[in-house]
Design goal:
The protein has 343 residues and is an alpha/beta fold. The protein has helices at 32-46, 81-91, 103-109, 111-120, 165-171, 185-197, 219-222, 227-230, 282-288, 310-325, 330-335; strands spanning 53-57, 72-75, 96-102, 125-130, 176-181, 202-207, 231-233, 241-242, 248-253, 256-261, 297-304. It has two domains: 15-238 and 274-314, Rossmann fold; 240-272, no CATH class. The chain contains eleven helices and eleven strands. The relative contact order is 0.11.
């Protein structure tokens, strides 16, 4: 008879410690279940006490996730999770803060807030569930829905140009940008771990299937039978190879990517070598614009650079002000300047 080994480490936490007693209420078969499961599996490995972890969400199917994490959580209002996360992180820098959002919540009503939290480099982890549809409100097209998408709110086909979340994140100067698939569990948990350990704003887009209102949106390249040929796994410092036999690669012709067959005069040294740490975001942006069927979909970490975090810079200013002017006096602040008494 064998027994499961006791967890090691100062916290000795397991996945079950992060599971709540709440009934998980998503549609059967929804990709959200996989993201939740990998998130719960990851938590013990981070070595952070549960009382120091906070999940903040906005509105949408994905935004129920804080109910299912046995940590602190905040189910906030539509699109404003990044704002609440910023305030929380600035005021308590001992907290590990996650923002859970979606293509509608984060890129439509919350687009402004998402841009600014990334450019500020607040030390939070943002996970954006992208199913290219509004699921909670029953199937309207979203900011990431493809051009011509027929939905309940676009019966003749959407005429909006879709947003590409990774391109938005890179343009907003997010210091960590990555992508994974809901059904690729090993890759997903590894990507989430990289993001959670990054110091600064980390942004992870997860292609997530809505099997009710947009079923199979990503299966042309996400299905396991074709994934090797239609996605490229990004590895820092390694050539961009893909295919079941890794027989194909991506080469740069100036700033234009092109697919080549390895062999017959093309070697791995001719291929695009992925550099996730480059301070120049141009190549990262080019990579974020590669999409099936013209190119294999990039999966993994696109960018990971170091920058001072917003809250550390704010704290530095506070410390300098106290050093120069002493501790603040709230009453004196209220009474300074032009004041008058109303009889």
């Amino acid at each position: 008879m064998t027994t499961e080994a006791a967890p090691e480490g100062p916290l000795a936490l397991q996945r079950k410690d992060f599971v709540t007693d709440q009934e998980v209420r998503w549609c059967p078969g929804c990709g959200d279940y996989s993201i939740l499961a990998q998130t719960q599996k990851l938590m013990p490995d981070l070595g952070v006490p549960r009382e120091n972890i906070v999940f903040i969400s906005g509105i949408g199917c994905n935004s129920r996730l804080p109910y299912y994490m046995n940590t602190y959580g905040f189910h906030s209002i539509h699109g404003r999770a990044p704002t609440i996360a910023t305030g929380l992180r600035v005021m308590n820098q001992d907290l590990k803060v996650f923002v859970i959002t979606g293509d509608g919540d984060g890129l439509s009503i919350g687009g402004n807030h998402l841009l600014h939290v990334m450019r500020r480099n607040v030390d939070i982890t943002i996970v954006l569930f992208n199913n290219r549809i509004y699921g909670l409100t029953k199937g309207q097209y979203s900011p990431t829905s493809e051009f011509g998408k027929r939905t309940k709110s676009s019966p003749m086909g959407a005429v909006d140009t879709p947003l590409h979340p990774l391109s938005v994140a890179i343009s907003a100067e997010a210091s960590f940008v990555a992508r994974s698939l809901d059904i690729d569990q090993k890759h997903l948990i590894a990507t989430l771990e990289r993001a959670a350990r990054h110091k600064g704003t980390s942004f992870v887009e997860v292609y997530q299937n809505c099997n009710v209102f947009n079923d199979g949106a990503f299966m042309e390249f996400a299905d396991k039978a074709v994934r090797a040929d239609r996605t490229v796994r990004l590895e820092h410092g390694q050539p961009m190879l893909f295919g079941k036999e890794r027989e194909k690669g991506i080469r740069l012709n100036g700033t234009t990517p092109e697919i080549v067959e390895v062999g017959n005069g093309v070697s791995e040294s001719d291929l695009w070598i992925h550099d996730e740490t480059s301070e120049d975001p141009v190549l990262s942006f080019i990579l974020s614009r590669m999409h099936w069927p013209d190119f294999p979909e990039p999966m993994g970490v696109i960018r990971a650079v170091e920058r001072p975090t917003y809250e550390s810079l704010v704290q530095q200013q506070v410390d300098e002000a106290i050093e120069q002017q002493g501790e603040g006096d709230l009453d004196a602040l209220f009474m300074e300047g032009d004041t008058w008494t109303v009889e």
